Amino acid sequence: MLWSDPENKPPKFLREAQEMLRRSGVILALAMVVLMLVTGSR
């Protein structure tokens, strides 16, 4: 990559979408853990 190359930044809406997917993935993983604990305790 040369110093003269333009920066390879995704557009704002794409970055926001990636952030939202990352957050929803974390929430989904936490929900699965909670669900396993609840079903395991029965």
TrEMBL record:
Report the superkingdom from the record: Bacteria
- Membrane-crossing ranges are 20-38
The protein's UniProt keywords, in alphabetical order, are:
Membrane, Transmembrane, Transmembrane helix
Tell me which InterPro entries the record gives. MmpB-like (IPR058070)
Q: Read off the Pfam families from this record.
A: MmpB (PF26627)
Q: What is this protein called?
A: Uncharacterized protein
List the top taxonomic levels of the source: Bacteria, Bacillati, Actinomycetota, Actinomycetes, Kitasatosporales
